[in-house]
Amino acid sequence: MSHTGSDHTLAQTCTSSVPVGTDLFRQAREAKGYSREDLAVTCGLTVDEIEDLELGNNASPAHLRRVAAALGLPSE
């Protein structure tokens, strides 16, 4: 899959330069119009797991990829 420059920049931001505990996922979720419950159903996680990710309490790569995919973000 090829990426545009903006995709590459977003991927780098998601995986390397955003400190744990930032609200990148919350902002992306809200931009999509999803509640935490909506996102949990969409990506197969619990609401508590979504909240943990948004607070930076759980940086499981598998969970990050699932949420990124559900929000239409690059998963790299």
Automatic annotation (TrEMBL):
Pfam families on file: HTH_3
Domain HTH cro/C1-type, first and last residues per copy: 24-73
InterPro entries linked: Cro/C1-type_HTH (IPR001387), Lambda_DNA-bd_dom_sf (IPR010982)
CDD domains linked: HTH_XRE (cd00093)
Organism superkingdom: Bacteria
Protein name per the record: Helix-turn-helix domain-containing protein
